[in-house]
Amino acid sequence: MDILQVEHVTKRFARQTALDDVSLTIPKGSVYGLLGPNGAGKTTLIRIINRITAPDQGRVIFDGREMEPKDVFRIGYLPEERGLYKKMKVGEQAVFFARLKGLSRHEAVVRLKKWFVKFGIESWWNRKVDELSKGMAQKVQFIVTVLHEPELLIFDEPFSGFDPINANLLKEEIMGLRDRGATVIFSTHNMSSVEEICDHITLINKSHNILTGRVDDIRHRHGNNIFQIAYRGDGAVLRSALQGCCEVMEEPEPEFGSTYQMLKIHVDRDADVKGVIGRVNEAVELRSFNEIIPSMNDIFIRAVGGSLDNGTPRNFES
């Protein structure tokens, strides 16, 4: 069953089209990645879902019916641009935001105390916000976002500014929220996080939805003919030799202590692989030539660069 459907949404600002006929469907109980480069239209779509702005065309279906103003109380939203009142005390401000979401003061305090203990910030209850580090302030905002136990949670770059330990803490909490029945929309540039926690993704580029589906399905269906080369020699000579016969994707860092350089490529056709290997052998000393399943980062780069397909939206739902 689906909790949210975005149907043919278009949004324009003056001469700029932020979203152009974008559609997507978000299943209940999933973590759904909303991906795209800066300026692609992700934040505009999130604002439309939150009813901060309205589409020029199209509609949003929430839990089986067209979205209404009261539905925002069933949503928790953590924007990328954080905002806390710096001169207020942390606990006082958290209670204020909780009450805006419909909780009584007593219930807000009880729930907040539990979350503050879980995140190790209980000693900051009576401190002013401007005394918090960036990471501490983000923890407070995360807590306020999830406190009223919304059915739909929207996190826009939630790990920005976090050290690895706290980023992992947030990942665990997001997965826990999903396991308890919440649906999560997760907007990020961090492709490793997408592979770790997202069930489905939609990739928006230049205001269009260009790729949609389950993460595993997308990775496997784009796994054909992506290879990693280990070699010794002049990288510029190798790139020149490969020009016109395959797509050079990136240069991964070699393993620690290795004397070989690495290159990741995509070959369009099976029939071309043998010729590519021949060119590599002529240009450099070839150590290995291995086919790999692409990462979401590989797919993101190719899709945004226009080399994944002809630009037609692709759906890989199973």
Tell me what you see in this structure.
- With 318 residues, this protein is an alpha/beta fold.
- It has two domains: 2-219, P-loop containing nucleotide triphosphate hydrolases (Rossmann fold); 224-292, Alpha-Beta Plaits (2-Layer Sandwich), CATH 3.30.70.
- Helices cover 33% and strands 29% of the residues.
- The chain has ten helices and 15 strands.
- Strands 6-7-8-3-9-10-15 form a seven-stranded mixed β-sheet, sandwiched between helices. Strands 2-1-4-5 form a four-stranded antiparallel β-sheet, with helices on one face. A four-stranded antiparallel β-sheet has the order 12-13-11-14, with helices on both faces.
- Helix 2 crosses helix 3 (105-118) and helix 2 (90-100) runs parallel beside helix 4 (134-146).
- The protein is globular.
- It starts with a strand and ends with a strand.
- The model has no long low-confidence stretch (mean pLDDT 89).
